[in-house]
Write a structure and sequence with these properties.
This protein is mostly helical and about 110 residues long. It contains five helices and two strands; from the N terminus they run ααααββα. It starts with 12 loop residues before the first helix and ends in a 5-residue tail after the last helix.
C-alpha cells in the first residue's frame, strides 16, 4: 500500500482482485510478489501511458502486443501512449499478465 493511504483502502486493480476473490486463485501469489518487488506501474511505463490510465480500457492495445511476434514493430491503435512499439519478451510477459488479470476480474474467457 502507498504511504499516506488509510489501512484497508483498495487502490490498485491487483488489490481489488485479491479482495474480490475469497478463495485462493492461482495468480494471487504472483500479484503479491509483484507488489512486494515494487513493480507497481511498470507495465504503464513500458507502454508509455500515464499511471492513472486504466489498462482495461486499452484491451485492444494489449491484445495487439500479444498477437505481434517478438522483435516486430506495430502501430498503436489508440490515441494514448507511444505511436509505435517494438515488442520485446519483457513487454509481452507484462502485457500477458495484465490481460490475465483483466480477464479474471471481468470473468471473461480467453478468445
Amino acid at each position: 500500500m502507498k504511504k499516506g493511504t488509510k489501512k484497508g483502502v483498495i487502490n490498485t486493480p491487483c488489490e481489488k482482485l485479491l479482495e474480490k476473490t475469497k478463495k485462493v486463485c492461482f495468480i494471487q501469489p504472483a500479484i503479491k510478489k509483484e507488489i512486494a518487488k515494487g513493480h507497481k506501474g511498470y507495465t504503464h511505463k513500458l507502454l508509455g501511458v500515464p499511471e492513472d490510465f486504466n489498462l482495461s480500457d486499452a484491451e485492444t492495445l494489449l491484445q495487439k502486443v500479444v498477437d505481434t511476434p517478438i522483435g516486430q514493430k506495430f502501430k498503436n491503435p489508440l490515441k494514448i501512449g507511444k505511436r509505435t512499439y517494438l515488442v520485446t519478451t519483457e513487454l509481452k510477459r507484462h502485457v500477458n499478465f495484465a490481460l490475465n488479470l483483466i480477464r479474471i476480474a471481468e470473468g471473461k474467457k480467453k478468445k
